[in-house]
Amino acid sequence: MDDFDLSGLIEDYLEDARTAVEKIDTLLLELEQGAAAGSVEDRIFSELLSLLHTLKGNSGMMGYDRIERYVHNGETILKMLREGEADYDPETLTIVVDISSNLSNALVEIAREKGINPDLSSYSAALTERIEYFEQLEAHVDAPDSNLSATETAIEEPADDDSFVAPPVEEPEDIVDEGEAKDRKEDSSRRYLGVSSNIVRVDFTRLDKLLNLLGELVIHRTRLEQLIFELAERDLDPEYTETIGETSLKIGSIINELQDGIMKVRMLPIGQVFSRFNRLIRDLAREHQKMIDLAVEGSDTELDKKIIDQISEPLLHLVRNAADHGIETPAERRKADKIAAGTIKLAARQESNHIIIEVEDDGRGIDTTRVLKRAREMGLVGKDEALDEAAKLDLIFHEGFSTRTTATETSGRGIGADVVLKTIGRLGGMVTVDTEKGKGTKFTITLPLTLAIVAAMLIESAEKLYAIPLSSIVETIKVRKENVLIVNGCEVIDLRGKIIPLLHLEKVFNLPSTSESEIYYIVIIGTEDKNIGVVCDRLIGQQEIVIKSLDEYIGEVFGISGATILGSGEVVLILDTISLIRYNLREGGVVGSI
Amino acid sequence: MLKKILVVDDSDLIHNMYRLILKKYPGLKQIDAANGIEALKILGEEDDIELILLDINMPLMDGLTFLSVVKREGIYSNVPVIIISTEGKEEDTLRGLEMGAKGYVTKPFKPAELLKIIDKVAAEYNTN
Fold it and tell me: Could you identify which of A48, A272, A425, B51 might form a hypothetical disulfide with A578, taking C-beta atoms 3.0 to 4.6 angstroms apart as the criterion?
């Protein structure tokens, strides 16, 4: 309310508000009587909510935000009482019935001192505490412990201490009096102590430390297994060796369980991120004068907290895009025979050892013609260069690409699809996009389940070892050199009808080329429609590796996403599959499929 | 230049607030109605109203009912309507837009936001 002096309207506000508060007071009294008698007429709730709603709007417009918030909380608790989600216990009733007098006092304050913004925060807090108390009760009755994975049933250990989590199931009939007295006493303790919970809050750095230690353990476990293997080969004391081997196995399996356990502790439901977008979508809709609904699926899909932290921004970019470019105005949508409100859907699910997150909208789809035009304007594509649909679509991921020439209030400048790709790539994941003109667009993000310890394939190329995360590998094949074709000067293979371009790591990393073997071992990496084959001299085998970041030491290196230490102590570089795929495209490699 | 608008809202305070905000349009006449029925009566009497600011949430005849009547009949079926909504009433706002309202703001809004929408809607109306 900066430019406008609303002080002249205070009298009007007070007049309206006083009338409303009087009516609210009468209704609250009726509510109290109804509660004592055992039932409250629904009419009382409708009238109360309507009055509060108007008062909230007026207070907000006048800048009395604390009154606004207090009234909002009042609305919430009343709605909960109406739906039976809250009880008419003495404390709640007191707080609710006090609403009218607290509001009345606030109005008196305003009347006395014009410039004041009455502070109702302690009353607001009391209401909020009640609301959360009832919400927690609801949650505890319905849902299993959220720290357990979705596939496990919640079998809670009975609490050892005296404080209980749910009311006692059955009291024997003849001890009714004692039981009642016990209930009432426990009720009052509960009021002060709150509901005991099995959930702890932990500083995440402690979990990181645990994970690091676990990582070391995994490295040494592998080393131990190797040593025992070598020991067995020496055949010195077979029985003794076997005993050592057994113990090592036991340790190994406990480490596996420990790993599972620690990973699980770090997992959080992605719903936390999804729910933050409600406000954003409302604001975006308002700004563009569009109507946009947010649909959410798979909120309890769990991800490592580190991944969740890093994924929020890319998701934000994609959601903004959908709201800015994807969804049309209600008028446009009506013309296109669509319902006036557009939908942006966030969905998450787990598939084997991946997490799939989709950002989908039912808007106008990506106009590849416009994309191509813009790319030509930006000099990314030559004037005469022809591209197929997939390649045109892929342009939006190009570094610096943007169709926006002006910034908007909520979106700033630029699409940021290139940033999204980069961020997801650094997490070891992939992003793909599907679009249909007039129907909508879907971005699919694939992420590995865990960050720190992953399964990888070790390969050797030009006498160097590399690790490729298993999550990026589509398949591995063996090919004779004579079966390799040359297309446009690039080596490719024909895999069941699909053309897959090949990549020699020595060429990518500028290393001397050594072998001239007849056999190519090829690791095919990528997604459904964009595959490349990494040529190796040898496939060493699959192994669990602990990912160590190199960022602090040598910064970002093209094609490398980190390093790992083998049991032997050898340092092996981990390949960054996304950048390798894009390298292939950039260098004029042949794009994917037939 | 905007000459005459109709404001439909059950709160006198809001009427006066709009009056203050709309001082930006010199010579603008603002007619107030407290509910849909009053508003329809006014539309019957005046014939040069150029814009309607409509509160969704009103007693006697609520905003949407009023809107459906306006859109049905006679000379005012094309006059631009801006819906004044509140958080939590998205369904109603959507219904209103589907019925032909040209824009919406959500209480509490900054005066500048309202002015922006009014300008935009009025401009579109004038070019048609």
Answer: A425
Chain A residues whose C-beta is within 8 A of a chain B C-beta are 1-6, 8-9, 12-13, 15-16, 50, 53-54, 56-58, 60-62, 68, 282, 286, 289, 291, 293, 330, 334, 340-341
The owner of tokens 């490295």 is: A219
Name, in order, each residue with C-beta under 8 angstroms of A173's C-beta and a sequence gap of 6 or more: none
pTM: 0.56
- Using a CB–CB cutoff of 8 Å, tell me whether B100 touches chain A: no
Contact B17/A9, CB-based, under 8 Å? yes
pLDDT tens per residue across all 594 residues of chain A: 445 677 778 888 898 899 999 999 999 999 988 888 888 899 999 999 989 988 998 898 888 989 999 999 999 999 999 988 888 888 888 899 999 989 999 999 998 888 888 888 888 888 888 888 888 777 665 544 444 333 333 333 333 433 333 443 343 444 344 445 555 555 556 555 655 666 777 888 888 888 888 888 888 888 888 888 888 888 888 888 888 989 988 998 898 888 888 888 888 888 888 878 887 888 888 888 898 989 998 888 888 888 888 888 889 889 988 998 899 988 889 888 888 889 999 999 887 667 899 999 999 998 888 888 888 888 877 777 777 887 788 888 877 776 655 444 444 444 478 888 888 887 778 888 999 999 999 999 988 766 667 788 999 988 889 999 887 888 999 988 888 888 877 888 888 888 888 988 888 888 887 767 788 899 998 876 678 899 998 898 888 787 777 766 777 778 888 888 887 778 899 998 877 887 765 554 444 322
Q: How far is CA A163 from the centre of its chain?
A: 34
Q: Note whether B14 and B114 are within 8 A (CB).
A: no
Residues of B whose CB is below 8 A from A60? 107-108
User: A12 and B93: CB-CB below 8 Å?
Assistant: no
Minimum distance, in Å, between the CA of residue B1 and any CA atom of chain A:
22
B103 in contact with chain A, both atoms CB, cutoff 8 A:
yes
Minimal Cβ distance to B97: which of A8, A56, A340? A340
For residues A124-161, b (16+ Cβ closer than 10 Å) or e, as one string?
bebbbebbebbeebeeeeeeeeeeeeeeeeeeeeeeee
A392 to chain B nearest CA, in Å? 35
Single-letter amino acid, residue A276: R
Q: Long-range contact list for A495-499, CB < 8 A, 24+ apart?
A: A495/A524, A497/A594, A498/A531, A498/A592, A498/A593, A498/A594, A499/A590, A499/A592, A499/A593, A499/A594
Chain B residue numbers with beta carbons less than 8 Å from the beta carbon of A5 are: 20
* Dihedral, CA of residue A209, residue A211, residue A217 and residue A223, to nearest 10: -120
**Contact between A57 and B20 using a beta-carbon 8 Å cutoff:** no
Pairing of strands A354-361, A342-351: antiparallel
Contacts of B16 in chain A (CB under 8 A): 8-9, 12
CA trace torsion A274, A276, A282, A283 (10° rounding):
-130
Percent helix, strand, coil in chain B (nearest 5)? 45, 20, 35
CA dihedral A38, A42, A47, A49 (to 10 degrees): 90
> Predicted ipTM?
0.79
Q: Which residues of B touch A55 (CB under 8 A)?
A: none
Contact B50, B20 (CB under 8 A): no
Cα separation, A539 vs A523, whole angstroms: 9
CB contact under 8 A, B14 and A15: no
Which residues on neighbouring strands pair with residue B56, listed in sequence order?
none
- In angstroms, rounded to a whole number, what is the distance separating the alpha carbons of residues B36 and A86? 36
